[in-house]
Amino acid sequence: MELLQRIEQAVVSGRSALESLGSVYASSIQSVEGAFVFMAKLPEGKRIVVGPVQTVANKFDGQWVGTLKACPLWSYNAAQLRSLFPWTAPCAIGNRVSFGTGDRVGLATPGHVRAFREFVVFPVLAQQSMRELGRTKRVPQDVIDDATFGVFQEGWKEGYAADADHIKTVDEAVMCFKTGFTMFTIDAADHINRKGVYLSDGDAVTELNGRKDSAKIREQYTGKSVRFEEDGVVVEFTFSEADLGRAVATYGKAVDHMVSVWEALKKVAGNTEFDFEISVDETETDTLPKDHYFVASELLRRGVKFRSLAPKFVGQFQKGIDYIGDVAEFERQFSAHALIARKCGGYKISVHSGSDKFTIFPIVGKYTKGYFHGKTAGTSWLEAVRVAAAKAPNLYRRMHKFALERFEEDRKSYHVTTNIANIPDVDTLSDNDLAALLDAVDSRQLMHITYGSILSTLDEKGALLFKTELFKVLEKEEEVHYSFLKKHMVRHMELLGLRRRN
Ligand code: ZN
């Protein structure tokens, strides 16, 4: 009460009085129609505070205190912010270089924004796959609302996108569009037929003949040689009838699927712009340059205007750690993918599972000439865990021990080579040594892949086992959390060679 009265007096005195209050987020203060709208930290939690003009305050749902209305961070209020301040709503990226952060806890956006302020790159601040949502028990609307509040808190007015990541069905895509997502990453892995590459020449030609559009496909590719060359990188291949049959057998259904998602989105979007990304990264076989060319050319032939394409690269992109593999071979393949993307329509190569792949980032920046989409996600969660390790050591120890119990089960859906035996016993470590666990490969992966269990498991009374306590720590230590996040993301952006803002 007392605090709100002080805020009320400051509102009367004007912006500089408001800015000087420690409980008000100075960068959030906006004036509209004679009212102030800003974020404040009250004893009961963060609130959007609006006043003293009633017509503006009436747009929000909250509690009147004198001439001010204190409004909780509810979805309804996020929607009001988006309509009053359009820069708090996601928008399409278009042709800009872009980088996705993703935020599994929903509190990381201000830290991410602080990294983006330093570089020329368009942020994707809301980014979540259906799988991640299932694990964190969030719905798509939460992802956008959390980004809205974070963007408002920081006063970030330069736009951001929302990526519905690894969408598998038309229904998911349409539902996410209606929720407000602006970028759609279509995962066609389920429609790729790996056996297609092993077809005999005869069977491959039969396969090609079976396609309704086989005449068009033949006309476009058969016997034609494709050759691109630039800066010493050469990509060259020809499609025989049988090669074409194998490509059709392997990727034909995947292309059909992408076309149907694209058409469904176009229908629901009308004139609203959105970004369409093609993803074939979550398969076991590397995407050969020839396959990439075939898929991209087929999509273009069929009118799909995709902005980015994520191939599966050689080597291992394990969660939360650096690239494992032959860097020279990666460079050779990546340079070919980047050249095809540039020559075939100027779309971006998208690098998924990009968290912490520091060794290969300079290669990504170099061969794309700085024009790419980077996608990270999970390691922002690890920065939240790092806050616990640094500021709430006992909570960290309990989460760590729980993660060890969960590890065998949770690792099943990931490809990781974590060796639990390399992780020291947390009870033998001093408080000051805990944060270093987040820098060691094995303990990093341990905390990374168990995030869903840590965030969603209930205790025997039905209360959240860790989430509530962790969130309290993150709220109390939010500046520490933001500074960890910023440092981590800046490291990514620097190594990718993104241009610094002047
Ligand atoms: Zn991916």
Write the layout of secondary structure elements.
Blueprint: H1 2-13, H2 15-19, E1 30-32, E2 35-42, E3 45-51, H3 54-57, E4 63-65, E5 68-72, H4 75-84, E6 98-100, H5 109-116, E7 122-129, H6 130-136, H7 140-154, E8 161-167, H8 170-179, E9 183-187, H9 201-209, H10 214-221, E10 225-230, E11 233-238, H11 241-269, E12 275-279, H12 289-301, E13 308-310, H13 327-343, E14 348-351, H14 361-367, E15 372-375, H15 378-391, H16 393-410, H17 441-449, H18 451-456, H19 467-476, H20 478-495
Parallel strand pairs: 6-7, 6-15, 7-8, 8-9, 9-12, 12-13, 13-14, 14-15
Antiparallel strand pairs: 1-2, 2-3, 3-5, 4-5, 10-11
Walk me through what this model shows.
The model has no long low-confidence stretch (mean pLDDT 94). Strand 1 (30-32) and strand 2 form a beta hairpin. Among the domains are: 2-72, no CATH class; 379-477, no CATH class. The chain is of the alpha/beta class and 502 residues long. The protein is 46% helix and 15% strand. It binds zinc ion. The site of zinc ion has 6 residues, from loops. Zinc ion is lined by residues 166, 279, 281-282, 310, 352.
**Alpha-beta content class:** alpha/beta
Which spans of ≥5 residues are poorly predicted at pLDDT below 50?
none
Shape: globular
Number of helices: 20
In which order are the strands of the major sheet placed?
6-7-8-9-12-13-14-15
Share of helical residues: 40-55%
Mean pLDDT: 94
Terminal-residue CA separation: 43 Å
The quaternary structure here is single chain
Radius of gyration (CA) equals 25 Å
The largest sheet is: 8 strands, parallel, barrel
Associated small molecules:
zinc ion
